[in-house]
């Protein structure tokens, strides 16, 4: 029996946070390999984003997602460049590690503006563009984190912003289901990305993390990108309002990630 192949030929996708080596870049590549044309968003990695866009047959788009207006405009820019929009992968985010007592109002506002506020603006505007041009429905996937559920010291701003993503997914999924638009999230555990490059260079950190992961290894960006590809595909047409955990079993081990 032949295996099922995911075919996204003709789909137009926007992937945010794809300028750095991480989940966004891996997702952009995987969507393109499945046949989609991809708009690659970046903050200030113009050369890397342009190379990825050339590789995937898409276009590179710069935007500072801390600016709500820039975030809201990005789906329209992608649709104009690609001739429409069928898929949004809202992956861009920022991480802040500070104890509660040291996290000030500006820190909290900045993390929430990018991780949650921009995600909302992107999703709202992308949904308004989907279904145009004769192709019904659409796919919206947000990158969350296991910290959506699992508290960790020093992540009060980051963890609460990702918890907000879980609620956003459910609310948007409910409203957009009648239009055939699915809304889901992936919640990565410990993935080898730019986020934790410095920490990963510490052998003690790696040993401590591996002791918490039943799979016995940290994750790769492609592990999360595979889950994103599934949620963007026709195989997931009846999956909406959920968060898919991609963590090698980390969240099975207790309350702290």
How would you sum up this structure, described in words?
The protein is α/β, with parallel strands linked by helices and 257 residues long. The chain has a single domain, classed as NAD(P)-binding Rossmann-like Domain (Rossmann fold, 3-Layer(aba) Sandwich), CATH 3.40.50. Helices cover 42% and strands 14% of the residues. The chain contains eight helices and seven strands. It has a seven-stranded parallel sheet, with helices on both faces. Helix 1 links the parallel strand 1 and strand 2. Helix 3 (68-82) packs parallel to helix 4.
Helix content: 40-55%
Beta-strand segment tally: 7
Structural class: alpha/beta
Structurally, how many domains make up the residues? 1
| Continuous helix count | 8
Question: What's the architecture in CATH terms?
Answer: 3-Layer(aba) Sandwich
* CATH third-level topology: Rossmann fold
Query: How widely separated are the two ends?
Result: 40 Å
User: Which CATH top level class fits?
Assistant: Alpha Beta
CATH superfamily: NAD(P)-binding Rossmann-like Domain
What is the mean predicted local confidence, pLDDT? Answer: 92
| Widest β-sheet, arrangement of strands | 3-2-1-4-5-6-7
Task: Outline the secondary-structure elements.
Layout: E1 12-15, H1 23-33, E2 37-42, H2 46-56, E3 59-62, H3 68-82, E4 87-90, H4 105-129, E5 138-143, H5 156-176, E6 181-188, H6 197-200, H7 203-210, H8 221-232, E7 243-246
Parallel strand pairs: 1-2, 1-4, 2-3, 4-5, 5-6, 6-7
Helix pairs in contact: 1-8, 3-4, 4-5
């Amino acid at each position: 029996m032949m295996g099922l192949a995911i075919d996204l030929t003709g789909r137009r996708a926007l992937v945010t946070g794809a300028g750095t080596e991480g989940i966004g870049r891996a997702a952009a590549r995987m969507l393109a390999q499945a046949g989609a044309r991809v708009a690659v968003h970046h903050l200030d990695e113009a050369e890397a984003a342009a190379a990825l866009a050339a590789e995937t047959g898409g276009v590179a788009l710069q935007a500072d997602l801390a600016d709500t207006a820039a975030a809201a405009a990005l789906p329209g820019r992608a649709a104009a460049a690609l001739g429409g929009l069928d898929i949004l992968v809202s992956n861009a985010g920022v991480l802040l590690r500070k104890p509660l007592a040291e996290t000030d109002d500006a820190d909290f506002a900045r993390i929430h503006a990018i991780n949650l506020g921009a995600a909302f603006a992107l999703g709202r505007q992308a949904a308004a563009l989907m279904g145009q041009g004769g192709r019904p429905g659409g796919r919206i996937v947000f990158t969350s984190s296991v910290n959506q559920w699992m508290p960790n010291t020093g992540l009060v701003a980051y963890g609460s912003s990702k918890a907000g993503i879980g609620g956003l997914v459910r609310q948007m999924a409910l409203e957009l289901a009648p239009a055939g638009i699915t809304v889901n999230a992936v919640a990565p555990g410990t993935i080898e990305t730019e986020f934790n490059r410095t920490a990963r260079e510490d052998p003690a950190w790696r040993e401590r993390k591996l002791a918490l992961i039943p799979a016995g290894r940290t994750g790769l960006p492609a592990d999360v990108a595979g889950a994103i590809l599934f949620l963007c595909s026709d195989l997931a047409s009846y999956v909406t309002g959920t968060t898919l955990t991609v963590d090698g079993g980390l969240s099975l081990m207790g309350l702290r990630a």
